Amino acid sequence: MRLSRQFTVFGSALFFVVIISLYLMLDHLQLDHTKNPSSGMDRLQTGQLSVLQDKIDRLERLLAENNEIITNIRDSVINLRESVKDGRRAGETGNFSQGPVELLPSPPLVIPIDSEDCQFSTRPYSKTADGQQMLDVNDLLAFDNPDGGVWKQGFEITYDEHEWDTEPLQVFVVPHSHNDPGWLKTFDDYFRDQTQHILNNMVVKLHEDRRRKIIWSEISYFSKWWDNIDDQKRDAVKKLIERGQLEMATGGWVMPDEANTHYFALIDQLLEGHQWLERHLGVKPKTGWAVDPFGHSPTQAYLLKQAGFSNMLIQRVHYSVKKHFAAQKSLEFFWRQNWDHDASTDILCHMMPFYSYDVPHTCGPDPKVCCQFDFKRLPGGRVSCPWRVPPQAITDNNVQDRARMLLDQYRKKSKLFRSKVVLVPLGDDFRYTEALEWDQQFQNYQKLFDYMNSHPELHVKAQFGTISDYFDALRKATGDGIGSPSLPVVSGDFFTYADRDDHYWSGYYTSRPFYKRLDRILESHLRAAEILYSLALANMRKVGKSNNFPATECYKLLTGARRNLALFQHHDAITGTGKDWVVVDYGTRLFHSILNLKRVIVNSAHWLALKDKQMFNHDASNLFLQMDDVQPAQDAQPRKTVLKIGLNPRSLVIYNPADQARSSVVTVYVNTPHVRVLNTYGQLVRVQVSAVWEDTTQVSKEAYQLSFVAQVPALGLSVYQLSEGAELQTELSQYVVLQQGNELSIKGAEDFHVAKSQVETEPIIIENAHLQLKISPSTGLLERLRLKEDGVEQQIKVEFVWYGTTSKKDKSGAYLFLPGGEATPFSSSRPPVIRVTKGSVFSEVTTTLSHITHTVRLYHIQGVEGQVAEICNSVDIRGEFNREIAMRITSDLNSKDRFFTDLNGFQIQPRRTMAKLPLQANFYPMSSMAYLQDPSFRLSLLSAQSLGASSLRSGQLEVILDRRLNQDDNRGLGQGVLDNKVTANAFRLLLEKTSSTEEPQAEASTPYSFPSLLSHMLYMHLNHPLIPMATGLDTAEVPLSPYAPLESSLPCDVHLVNLRTIQSKDEGGGPSEEAALILHRKGFDCHFSSRNTGLLCSTTRGKLSVDKLFGGLSVRKLTPASLSLLHSQENGQSSSQISLKPMEISTYRLELS
Ligand SMILES: [Zn+2]
Asked: 3-state class of 401 per DSSP?
């Protein structure tokens, strides 16, 4: 307490010193001014008056800015007070008393990071005894492709007849039907044509014989079917589950893609499925089943573990890796996170050994044999065996031969594993649609099992099982995997997938990038809406009224959006590997959900921002607040709406969905350049007015861009007033437009100052307090960057390149990237038009090339966004033939063959560019960021959308922006990718200097790496922009006030993943009083300069006290739960204290009022 008082007193004293010195400074300037010759008393008086007016305006602005600084100081004091209470050692606190000095505009600011919080990222890596690290495996493997015989990508398997004499072979044949929620048909069409019949037949056919079993994974389909069946059928399903004949495997909404997905959406789809299962069936899945996602991420393993799962299965892994794991008998392992030091993330994982999950590749190594045991392919049917030996129906005459033939495959498969339990999946895409197929498979297999089981000399017990039946038996046989035989530990990921030859599935990291961006837009809207809605409901419980707030209607909109986002995480949706019309179906769902979520956000913000809640009145046809942008169609770019500004102030409510208070630039379109912007305290805010461009040199007369720095509390609302000023009180942007060194004239720019051109050979320079960017006057692209703190100029060169596809038979398509060779430089078919904008809030250079409009921007603010260059590309490659366009960044960094890409926005996976592999194999998913580093610097590219990225040379980072491919790549889609759209993608480019002498994780073998806190924060801001909402013109009378739900910002390393209102148990599907509070404590690297970063938060060793967190609300209940709420510690103590380990994601059931 003593410390915080000191802190406040010091801060306030400083504030006054600054104000007084600024006043004196102004006065001094004023003196200079009056020395200028002027004649006549009147003119002098008028001059003095206007000078006085000007001085008052500037003071007002300074007061506003200082008010923001004081707010920041207050936040920091609160943070600090909490840390002090937590018992921080006295020695460390000494550093922080310097804090307030650093908060002022120019001096460097060191953010308070507990040194203990830095230890996590620097702990040395130690490998476990029987452990495999995928980075090492990739180093070790030759990635050759020799012919392995019947098992083409493997090796010959032999066994001794007597191996099972003492311990018989246990065979679990697991029937499954893989139902894609959209691919060649839309979700609804598949349901109508196939899925509903599968499920209807399931009820009948499983009841015919209790020994029959099946597993199901896609709850999107199951719930749709459930809604359409009667109670009798529902009871029959419940019976099947009770008897263990039907198991829900994973139980997510879909079987998600693991490359392009963000962990927010992975959790959303899991929660949505699990909540449905719990509500309707009382089922708690414990085993994961992922046979089709194109490569596998440890993030999914972590999430399943946090959801309380014990086991999981994966299938699509590079054939060389499978072969290696098979040879080591390591196909079953404990998957451990790279950064896990105490084995707490281990989950038992089964990797399927062969090429596919279809029947020919699951019974054993020989597909020609296994295909004969897919009884759907019996002669006369619609499908047959490509190996030209058809199945035979099992009869008394052939059962002996057929059983022995199948057992031989089972035994061989078993030789690849450490236990004597063998798993044999039995199914394929959309299997078991017809009653006949159920009979064919189940009857014939039962005959085979009966034969095997009745011949003790075969030493086998074969049966139908569910996936958990298999894992239970495996755990029994291996003493939970740690007995004898024990199972190894594996860490790392399984990208990039190749199923044969050089067919690497790195194309889908970028395919249909328009929708990969739309996915993130929906995601950030969903999170923003969930949190604000939950806070609004809690506020209503507190104040005891809700007027006509549309709580149930909003909840339905939220549920719809959750499900549409969840559906899009499917491995043929976000991947961009569906048919054109299926893509349109997904796009329409995303688009409508975004519109609906805007209603939820606007309604919640309306409630929370109202000073007098009595005045709340919901009018569905005329909402109180309007979002400032409109997306006209599912495949179009959003457009800003032009706000009409009049003499009466119009309110702009700004919502900050980030975890920390923030100063970020907000841009809205207005109808006049004469705008006054006042903040909550009625103070004038500095504004930059820029042109709205109709084309490269034509300025709009109807609209102006209004940009200002908004200060908004964490998860809260600020209110700004916009009104028309009689005279120009804003600062106008300055422009110059160049082409081939010549200045182009700008049409309609009378309002704006057009700057005189520079010397044509000199680089174009834009700079702020932290960065200076040099841009080539001929290409209009970034060439050099200087960190002002460091003073050294670096080469950071941006260019665009083209990839074509190979001239060989197999070419690039939706899944595969098969380039014809290295990329060739992109050259614009017309000379670039370069538009330089300079202003007080931001400066930017926009370069228009054929196919690309590229913008690089700097913000003139003290917040974190002043630290980074913003890059936006609008790409249009329609009309091209078999081409992919990439942005390449070449730097001086000596990164050698190492680079880093994230996995699902959750963790960083170190990569090594491997010369032994083809170019396309060195591309990896970049769902949130990629970086390069050397001992002195780290260069990060933060991405607002998932795309494929690589570093093909030392110092180089490249990212594919769009791909247009004229042919199918033979993975079943049956078409190319020709539905390209004008696609906007956004990035932040961050150069960070290492502050210590050692390189972050200097050892090349260290399998983990972490972004800095600044990088985390910038990504948060990129992914979750401020949301401006305007009131109507006629609502000036309604008083609004800012809203700050949190006592202070969350610690720098804690992210509120979601605050998601749980559905009520009552009929009607409205909200309950409980919400799922999902928190993630991020891992971060402290090696980078933390001076002057603009961060205004501290770290607290993962400790959080929830009752103090939510300012005006009290915590009625806080119960720890598993990630998807299936397992709650209901009788555990309800404490308001939360403690998170680094990297941990935890869920709590929370009741606020
Ligand atoms: Zn699939």
From this structure: helix
